Amino acid sequence: MKGIAVKIGQKGAFLTEVMPPDKPVNEQVLLKTLYTGICGTDRGIINGLLNFARPEADKDLLVLGHEGLAQVMDTGEKVKSLKPGDLVVPIVRRPGKCIQCKIGRQDNCEDGDFVEAGIRGKDGFMREYFIDEEEYLVKVKDKNLGKLAVLTEPLKNLVKAYEVYQTVSNRSVKTCSDGSYWCKKVTIIGAGPIGILFSMLFITHGFQVTLISRSDKEGVASNICKRIGADFIQEDAIKIDVKSLISDIFVDTTGRPEIVGKGLQALKYNGVEILFGTTLAGNINITGEMLTEAVEKNITVFGTVDGAKQHYVEALNYLSMWKEIYGNLLEEIITDEDVPEKSVEALNGDGKGEIKRIIRWS
Ligand code: BGC
Ligand code: ZN
Ligand code: ZN
Fold this sequence. Notes:
The chain is an alpha/beta fold. It folds into two domains: 2-151 and 333-360, Quinone Oxidoreductase, Chain A, domain 1 (Alpha-Beta Complex), CATH 3.90.180; 173-297, Rossmann fold (3-Layer(aba) Sandwich). Helix content is 26%, strand content 27%. Strand 15, helix 6 and strand 16 (267-275) form a beta-alpha-beta unit. Helix 3 packs across helix 4, helix 3 packs across helix 8 (309-326) and helix 4 packs parallel to helix 5. It starts with a strand and ends with a strand. Beta-D-glucopyranose binds next to helix 3. Residues 39, 41, 66, 92-93, 116, 119, 153-154, 157, 305-306 line the site of beta-D-glucopyranose.
């Protein structure tokens, strides 16, 4: 059967023959892959930029794919919650042995002793079939979502980020005087799928949102912003005067250190900066003045990665809600879709001209 893999230490992903799974036993579930998404993490692995990427122990190749949507084909005798025909989103990160991992919070793992499907130490979902454990599968109850459910995995990271924002903001009064968030300004940098989904999430909770991006691929980001009631500015945030960026929350999805530095200066009292982007390039000069301001203003900066099973569940609920409210709007995020054979070249490309590219497996 087909799969898409990489050989760590060698650039480029390729289509290859992978072992078909056996019959599922006990808590195992046999799954047919319907769709997988492609993101910056995949391209980072393919280009040798993520030093934590590694194959399964004793294996040579790593099957890619951590953003998946699959259909249950068969179940082991101990599986209770799933039956053939059900749709599921598989969880990326699998627990190690630390206290966080033991309570299902491997997204907050303390020692790095976890594996991630399609990223580190575990084969991913870019293959026609795979076996997984019931525990790591999140059921898609809303059949109307269709392929949009492939956005669950990236969105779950943001659902966690929003929860962390809520937690750190509890140190002071975090709402406007009427208890809502209408007066709170959120600036989000980068109009990839992450920036767009972050905008939708904060709008849903009643914040004022401005999405800023150098590019507006196919006009998708500006159109979505218009529809949901967010502002969109097409400009490099570096070039914008910091006074025009003043906000309560600043979200960086680009991983550019210069932007993160600018965000720090743009925050109001009790402001929060959310670090989500990762690139290995660039650096900033943090001045004593910047530090003093951050201290005097009670600024919080936090990085956040991955999400727990509960965040996948909530991400699915957001997607259903947005489909209900905005109709086919979310579909615009999926700008490219193709079969595996025709997707490899794009996977090896730089992703320019696409927002979310997905691969259709059956
Ligand atoms: C995934 C996370 C994962 C991270 C690793 C992201 O693309 O969504 O689940 O922990 O990559 O850097
Ligand atoms: Zn991803
Ligand atoms: Zn752990």
